[in-house]
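2 proteins. here.
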Amino acid sequence: MSVKAFKLVSAVEQEMLMGDKNYINIECIECCGKNLYIGTNDCFIYHFLLDEKISTAGKISFAATKQLHKYLGLKKPVSELKAASALTRLLVLCDNTITLVNMINLEPVPTGARIKGAVTFTLNENPVSGDPFCVEVCIISVKRRTIQMFMVFEDRVQIVKEVFTPEQPCAVAVDGYYLCLALTTQYIILNYNTGVSQDLFPYCSDEKRPIVKRIGRQEFLLAGPGGLGMFATVDGISQRAPVHWSENVIGAALCFPYVVALDDEFITVHSMLDQQQKQTLPFKEGHILQDFEGKVIVATNKGVYILVPLPLEKQIQDLLASHRVEEALVLAKGARRNIPKEKFQVMYKRILQQAGFIQFAQLQFLEAKELFR
């Protein structure tokens, strides 16, 4: 049974980005606060400001205002963008080179600092250096079976470590000293400081696109065999049951308490609290799904959309209205970490009371008694 957890809202439409130039495709996106950056296949970066608007009826819409666009001077697609807001820098991967550009005017840094030989890269969201004016970047190198760690400052880059892997890596996520890697035939956890590695489970990267995503401190979400979304900690164990995805998941994102996944035809929403599928949204031709500071964004080649979460209280009330007491209570308990303590206690008491009356009306007196207690 479904829950309305998210609503799909258009943010940037085709005309705003490409006008009538149909050959332009969206390759990557980055969102930092109100700033939305889009990288395209014809080597341009576009910068938009996103404004959220709420109508009197409570309907949310987004107005995107184009700030500027910049040609990077190559005949190659912009394949990845990552913002380092503390440095007001945007890291841009194009033609195996990461360039640092200013977040505001999109101009390259005057020193010309760059990282060469990168296939893909990610930022360490749980950095180990302790320097607020530096970001830690992990790249999969063009050198075979090699991962490199860099410290990136406002106008310079510095290599910290080079690590060799047992097989060719094709996807990576970082947490502190831990790398979660998708290799050719399996996922592993590797501590790049000590060199100690731990096998997680087998996976064939030739058949499907691997997904490796950091979802919290020392925890990752992976696309496992048999269409399972698997959770793994840096110790190589799983503290949560897996979620059942379709076989051909392209991307995954987290918006607590939900895991959102994208495949060829749908966006699916699973609860991390009871692993059940809660919502399915038809979405064709999607190829990007990412979360940015709690904002979940999906994109086709031509447009960008935002998945707006409905307030948890509204979702809980909808479940109670459908007499789905157990699910409502699970969601209410899970909402504790998103709601201030005093407000949560008042809300939770009211929900227990409502749930008690529903059970009472269904002649489930023992259950009702427990809830009223």
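next one coming up
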Amino acid sequence: LLFPVSNLCGKCRPRDADLLQPSLNFLYWSLHQTTPCSQQRAVAVLLSNVSLLELLQKVLECTWLRSPPSQPAYLSPEDALLCSGWLLVASLLLYQHRYNTEVHQTLSLDLTEVLNAVIFRKKKPILLLVSIVQFLRAVLRQNFSSSLLVIVGQNTAQGAMQPQPSSLQDAALHPLAMAQVFSLVVSLQNLLVHKDLLLSQAVVACLETLVEYLYVKNQDVALHVASQPWHRFLLFTLLNGGQKSFLQPEVLRLMTLFLRYQSSNIISQKEITQILQEATEANLAELPEATSRALHLFLCQV
């Protein structure tokens, strides 16, 4: 089925949302819900379809070309198509790298536009933000180097707002700039305040990958980002809700992140003791799977 569905997508236009959205969902599902052997073949089939990749390029660009919806919570057919497009491309990036699959057509994206889609959200629905954040994480995991994706230069319309990469820090973080890093971190923190489970999972994972990327590029920058005082206010905000327990997956993963990069001004011995106390009193067998995994990683880090 991959052949006819992918060929059908390649013959569509980005505005054919009613047909494209379920088709892209099928391709995404085919990549994830199959055996490793079949997965490798599926990736090869999709990456050999030049028309499909050209269509995906046009779909992603619609993210910043179309005007924001009047109702941000409402997921229109166009927004649903964008979600499917970003998630599919993120998966293709991941699996192309894993299997070193031959690429017949590259995708070209402006990094500034991708970052601005998260930083300047303009009433984007939560599911669309989740999809773009997932893509951004996939790109960070590959250090912006992929035979499938080409990162083009800074958008000239935004050039006046961006610092020139003349500093040693900007050169080390290329293609990111320090100003972009801090804007992205603040935006991801703000998204966490929404306390949406799906969004929180994607944002925390992206923060983890971002700091890992920074640590490889410039350890001082990574430690500086991880120790920003605003992180502590973020933790208090996340705990100041209906669930004041530290045993929330996103809180545990953030705590683990700060421990890993020795941000003692963010997480103190007091918080560590509170988490250990809550874990002692909890019925571990009844904890959700996401919480169990996050608690395991936290304890290993401690």
